[in-house]
Design goal:
Two copies of one chain form a homodimer.
Chain A (H helix, E strand, L loop, with lengths): L1 E5 L5 H10 L4 E5 L2 H9 L5 E8 L3 E2 L1 H9 L3 E9 L3 E4 L10 E4 L1 H6 L1 H6 L4 E4 L3 H11 L4 E5 L1 H6 L3 E4 L9 E8 L14 E10 L4 H10 L5 E8 L6 E9 L5 H13 L1 E10 L5 H10 L1
Parallel strand pairs in A: 1-2, 1-3, 7-8, 7-9
Antiparallel strand pairs in A: 3-4, 3-11, 5-11, 6-9, 6-10, 12-14, 12-15, 13-14
Helix pairs in contact in A: 8-9
């Protein structure tokens, strides 16, 4: 199995790919999200893995746009806890560190660390894993990187500190995409399925209420709802909806059929086994928040 | 009027502050979003201005979290078109440019430019305006920055190219916050108001349907809805809702009263005049997409 992901080896997306498809999967690093879709479309890889939302930074609309542009199918999801480790070349002591390289968002997520250690300078880098790789390539003295421990192992670095980020409860949700949807037969297994759809609706009072009535009438649980303004047409909204059940189940089929009359450009992005947040991680997040 | 914003002078947030409060307002640069809240809380400034959602990158949940932690009120909103200009020191020609500094997100938003000009190297910087300022401070040769034209004017730079970003339809929505809410009297003016609320609800089939029924029954238009998973408690959701009308209007008051029984931790973030996207900008976005 070949999996396309965006970033350099050691990126959080590659870690999510391994979580979804096992350590034996062959991962292929792509420069952009668009390249991930092209790799799957063009059969260079079997699957693609994309971040779709983060618990602090929100939904990545750009990847929803790409899902709508390309005719690929969501076949899986996973949650990954964003946990930055302070990585350095072996032999480096914490007291040696004068500079820490990482992506600006990761540096911002670790602002409490920098506030506490005023003698350590944050230095911006293109990505977290790239910052880790630069240590192996350049072997600079007194320099560390903030990235996953996974990136650290890949580039032979030592974790001087773990969980450096301010917030314990920072999760990213990743989707797996493929050229063919999961078979409706698989949707009848023991593991509960979920379905992601996107649609347009008129901006008029009660339109969303009527749409949700379709699900309420069938006691279908909703897992996510999000409206997205359309800058090109302020009186139209696009919605993203995730709900319980697979598109092959009779009550979901009936709901989707009824939805056709209430929406436009309805698109089933995919039905796939529902992932749950690891309990220990959720508990830790709850304690800290 | 003193306005706190996050970033260095010339940041898009400062540009949004000027759009909301005029060129005469005194803007105060803050290091973090939290510092913006602290500046308003601690009466160092009269208002704060925060990005809350971007048309490509989604809602900034972190700023919703800060709105819920602090007891401040939303008193205004504005949309800003994200338009990156290629800025250089006066006398620099486009053919001289070998390196372009900016925030990684801005560099990614201009990937088509770098694909076309392979001899120009993108260099990461902490923020767009900081990249512009670095040209004035260091006066490096053959180096440009990607930031707003506003940042360019501030640091005496020339715009060699305008609208360098791939997508014309990239907008950020900003909110203005203050210690006291807008008076209900002001909510009866000619300009239509909108109200932002946040609440928690049980994750059970039909709960959101019943909540939206409160608005549908009163023909209140919804402008935004978003669910946010709670990593600490996967069976609870938090919702953000924006709808038409001010919290002082009788039908809005009645709706909010009914909502108390259907939700928990209901919080009125503020009622404020509704901003519209500039038409010309929306048209251009529509042509390109």
């Amino acid at each position: 199995m070949k999996i396309a992901f965006q970033g350099v080896p050691g990126a959080y997306s590659e870690l999510a790919s391994r979580g979804l498809f096992g350590a034996g999967a062959k991962t292929v690093a792509c420069e952009t999200f668009e390249n991930v879709f092209e790799a799957v479309d063009g059969k260079q890889t079997d699957r693609g893995v994309l971040p779709i939302e983060n618990s602090l930074a929100g939904s990545i609309h750009q990847n929803y746009d790409l899902l709508l542009e390309h005719r690929l199918h969501v076949v899986g999801e996973t949650y990954l806890r964003v946990e930055h480790a302070l990585l350095a070349l072996p032999g480096t002591k914490f007291s040696d560190i004068r500079e820490v390289r990482s992506h600006p968002q990761a540096l911002a997520q670790c602002s409490h660390f920098f506030a506490k250690h005023r003698n350590i300078k944050p230095v911006v880098w293109f990505d977290t894993a790239g910052a880790a790789r630069s240590l192996l390539e350049e072997k600079p003295r007194g320099v560390a990187a903030l990235a996953s421990e996974y990136a650290g192992r890949l580039y032979g670095l030592k974790a001087l500190k773990r969980g450096v980020q301010n917030e314990a409860g920072n999760f990213t949700r990743f989707l797996a995409i493929a050229r063919t949807p999961l078979s409706p037969l698989k949707q009848r297994g023991k593991h509960p399925f979920k379905t992601s759809i996107a649609f347009g609706a008129k901006n008029e009072a009660g339109s969303l209420f009527r749409i949700l009535g379709v699900f309420a009438a069938r006691k279908i649980d909703l897992h996510k709802i999000e409206s997205r303004p359309n800058p090109a047409s302020p009186f139209e909204y696009r919605f993203y909806l995730d709900f319980a059940g697979g598109a092959g189940e009779p009550k979901v089929k009936a709901a989707l059929k009824e939805l056709l009359a209430l929406t436009h450009d309805l698109r089933i992005l995919g039905s796939y086994p529902r992932a749950v947040l690891p309990k220990a991680a959720a508990k830790r997040a709850s304690r800290k928040s």
